[in-house]
Design a protein that fits this description.
- Keywords: Signal.
- The chain is an all-alpha fold.
- Helix content is 58%, strand content 0%.
- The longest helix has 23 residues.
- The radius of gyration is 23 Å and the shape is flat.
- 0% of the residues are buried.
């Protein structure tokens, strides 16, 4: 019975915390950041490049971490 009470209290606490955080988020600022930083990929066939520019000239041994 104690476990159920602890689980219920944990869920209530998480729910209340999420409501408080949601009310405190500046939605206009989030919209501005998303539209300026995150951009759509122009060509769907174009591969996504996850490496840094410095990694282009790195050796194979350096890329795998040795």
């Amino acid at each position: 019975m104690k476990k159920l009470i602890i689980i219920a209290l944990a869920l209530i606490t998480l729910g209340a915390t999420s409501q408080i955080v949601e009310k405190n988020i500046d939605k206009e600022q989030v919209k501005t950041v998303v539209t300026t930083i995150l951009k759509e990929q122009d060509d769907k066939l174009d591969p996504i490049y996850f490496q840094h520019d410095a990694d282009k000239n790195a050796s194979f041994i350096g890329k795998i971490g040795f």
